[in-house]
Specification:
Blueprint (H helix, E strand, L loop, with lengths): L1 E5 L9 E3 L7 E3 L1 H18 L3 E7 L7 H17 L5 E6 L3 E6 L7 H19 L2 H6 L1 E7 L18 H9 L1 H21 L1 H14 L5 E7 L5 E7 L9 H11 L26 H8 L7 H7 L3 E3 L6 H6 L6 H4 L4 E3 L12 H14 L2 H15 L6
Parallel strand pairs: 1-7, 3-5, 10-11
Antiparallel strand pairs: 2-3, 4-6, 4-7, 5-6, 8-9
Length: about 375
């Protein structure tokens, strides 16, 4: 039997299959079990209590009466090894059985994982034949995961998000249209605004010391990091401590809005940031500093429309549910937040707008947001 830890036609009914008489569990269908994973993630976000997903994989065998009996034996063994409050079901029907161990204390995560590996392994070993036991592969997936913000690969564990993968598969055609729009739109912008690029580059070099482009690590979809591009609007080698402190307060809901130049009640952004050059203030006000991000779009790291990509220290301050904004959609240059209030919107409301976009996304919604973006670029929330 293989055991892995991750931070990343049958006599059994495809809907609900009663576990053998020795246990009290009901085995959920694949659809029901994956829906329970989604619900448990949201419950865990509220309760702040992690859960552990254990997957028992029988490998690439061909379903038969014999293998069905093996699976029934495994289900019976799991009913002995798990609590009545744990959830058992088909992660992949007739191939992968899953168990969710819910409401694990934060301080108990390491001990619970070790206990589960030992308990389940011993139970299966005593129940299955040697040949059957060697077929089984166990993997453990803990939610929420620990993200490596310097890793360019996906930090989130895909096994914990089967519902999102199914949703993305159902949108495959629309996703192709979105990528076509991204490539076409970014190429068009890079060509049309090329004279402006030259003018901005010259102006930056003439007015302050430092490079033309500002490069920064940002967190993309699924927690993968990438190099984010902007025209430099700040003095080189500046201190980020004030921005980091304000962002952490903003995410915690403790930041006060700063006075703006418009008639609104202020913006949730540093409006008098000493790091910004006089030219940089103009570039930010007009959003011209964002033009190099069309290169990020062309590379596939961003989209024309989507949530803004956060900094690593922003994600570190996120509540669990805030992570969904970078899990459920690729980051974008513009988005529903930008055209719905921009920096006048509190952080939690910004996240809700991002999640609303991810849930209702379509090429037509992208087009509407793109058409509303020029007005938002010059609006009160632009800083």
């Amino acid at each position: 039997m293989n055991v892995r830890r991750s931070n990343h036609g049958s006599t059994l009914s495809p809907l609900l299959a009663e576990a053998p008489a020795s246990g009290q569990h009901v085995t959920l269908s694949e659809e029901a079990f994956q829906r329970m994973i989604s619900l448990e993630r949201k419950r865990s976000e509220r309760s702040r209590k992690p859960f552990l997903l254990m997957l028992v994989d029988m490998g690439g065998y061909v379903p038969s009466e014999r293998t069905t009996k093996v699976l029934a034996t495994i289900l019976a063994a799991l009913s002995v090894s798990t609590r009545e409050t744990d959830v058992t079901g088909w992660y992949k029907h007739n191939r992968v059985v899953g168990v969710m161990f819910t409401e694990i204390g934060l301080e108990d995560r390491a001990s619970v994982l070790g206990t589960m590996i030992t308990r389940v392994s011993e139970t299966l070993k005593s129940t299955l034949s040697f040949e059957q036991f060697n077929q089984v592969s166990l993997s453990f997936h803990l939610f929420p995961e620990d993200w490596d913000h310097e890793d360019e690969q996906r930090s989130s564990d895909p096994r914990l998000y089967p519902d999102l993968e199914k949703r993305d598969a159902s949108r495959k055609l629309f996703s192709s249209v979105k990528r076509f729009m991204d490539i076409g739109g970014s190429l068009f912008a890079l060509i049309v605004f090329s004279p402006l690029w030259v003018a901005i580059a010259v102006a930056i070099k003439l007015t302050s010391q430092g490079p033309v482009f500002f490069r920064q690590r940002r967190i993309g979809q699924h927690g993968a990091s990438f190099t984010f591009l902007k025209f430099r609007s700040m003095h080189a080698n500046n201190d980020t401590s004030n921005h980091k402190e304000y962002v952490q307060k903003l995410i915690a809901g403790k930041a006060e809005p700063h006075a703006s130049n418009g008639n609104g009640g202020g913006v949730y952004k540093l409006t008098k940031d000493p790091r910004i050059t006089p030219l940089g203030a103009f570039l930010r006000r007009t959003s011209l500093d964002e033009l190099p991000q069309f290169i990020n779009v062309l590379r596939g790291e961003m989209s024309l429309v989507g949530p803004r990509p956060p900094l690593p220290y922003e994600v570190e301050a996120y509540d669990f549910w805030h992570r969904r904004r970078v899990l459920e959609a690729k980051p974008g240059i513009t988005g529903l937040w930008q055209v719905s209030g921009r920096s006048r919107v509190k952080f939690d409301d910004m996240v809700r707008l991002d999640l609303q976009y991810a849930q209702h996304w379509s090429p037509w919604l992208d087009l509407k947001i793109i058409l509303r973006t020029p007005g938002a670029m010059l609006g009160e929330g632009a800083y």
